[in-house]
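hi support,

uploading two proteins for the ticket. first:
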Amino acid sequence: MSQQVAIFDLDDTLIRGDSSLLWTHYLWEKQIITDPRFIEADQKMISDYNAGKLDMQEYLAVSLQALCKIPHEQVDIWLTDFVETKIKPLFYPAAKTQLDIYRQQNIPIIIISATVSFVVQKIAAAFGVKTAMGIDMVMKDGCYTGNIQGVPTFREGKVTRLQQWLAEQNLSPKHISFYTDSANDLPMCFFANEVFTVNPDMKLQSEAEKHGWQQLSWELAPLV
């Protein structure tokens, strides 16, 4: 039984950018969505998220309207291409190295993100991470709806979902390491035993200085 687990946020932690935003832009580029209100909703989401006042259910109700009549199998085909073309170039090399270090030590790795789970799990698979949690959406007639199922992996919801998962796995690790860029993840920071901030926002940086958390600066490899 593992005495340690390593938890990673996804957006702006393992990759440079927000996968939710990038996914909307991908659907827009492919002309799968054509209504500019979806782009506007994403811009408002980022601004509310950064301000710590995002209403996640309200955002997802709008954001997922574009997919509500598209079979999840088709969404999965687009996601495969999305991860290959848009996400892989944004993986931080240092993130891959850190994941490899934990793998070599047989330490379980979990990605927990406030992005919808079908996007998170596809990206996690590309990192070779088997356990990934995002916001689960209710499905209807084989399509994703805009309604959240269960506890959303957002703010303190990340801690709740992690606790549920640990209980299901019968794990009670003595040491939890957590990596994030955002002050929205402070509940998880206080739950973890060891915190690494990755290119943190100002509020998180100030908390990191107060609590002595290690601050990492991860960059993309320069284009040759």
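and the second one:
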Amino acid sequence: MTENTSPSGSASRPGDGPRTVVVTGAGTGIGRATARAFAANGSHVIAVGRRAEPLREAAAEPGSGTITPVSADITAPHAPDRIVEAALQATGRLDVLVNNAAVVGDESLGGYTPAGIEWQLTTNLTAPVLLTQAALPALRTAPAGGVILNVSTALGQRAWPGNSLYAATKGALEVLTRGWAVDLAADGIRVAAVAPGAIDTPIGEHRGLDAERRAALRKWQIGHTPLGRVGRPEEVASVLVQLASDKAAFVTGVVLPVDGGAVVA
């Protein structure tokens, strides 16, 4: 096998073969771009999402590389074991886990319900913890060292209207990122996170916002982003690929904003 000489160096080392990368929430937005970026770089990607069709579309896109769609709800019982088993069955290994899947509600304090709180906590926090736990045995044996990448949000560091519960779940994921980095260093596993700001994804539609509210939200976001625009999912994906690469072998415990300067403005 020819050694990977791509700038990121994330796909393989000599004799190791391509890395296997699990990406959750891979059907749309940042997850889809991340699955495609890792696959284009030579990794075998296990693309996980609730809906089968978007996953198949991502896998079939030209230049996508090797993507294996796995339709699964990460909050379902036994889903973590099933996802890890899918990776091991496909390639016999698991090198990188990207915890990207998340949900955001449209409620604010005064309108929360127990069910709405549980929905966000379970999807954004409990599910990534349980999936990471299930992946640990395989990550510990990754030839180049395992990598766990969590997708947080710039909202964890700077409040944006109507997103406090979502931000709280992501803030907790950032605490876990730092804690896991310390706990797993002796196992050769690195842990890092990215904190995207305003990114061009379907999250507004998923929240049930109509076109007028989405436009108002975008205007507000751009006004609070020094670079004066929303980001592209591919810009977040490229950072994730770099964090997983050998070039970042001395990077762990970091939460890296990818937000056009929003958290420092």
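thanks. also noticed: The CA atoms of residues 143 and 204 lie 40 Å apart.
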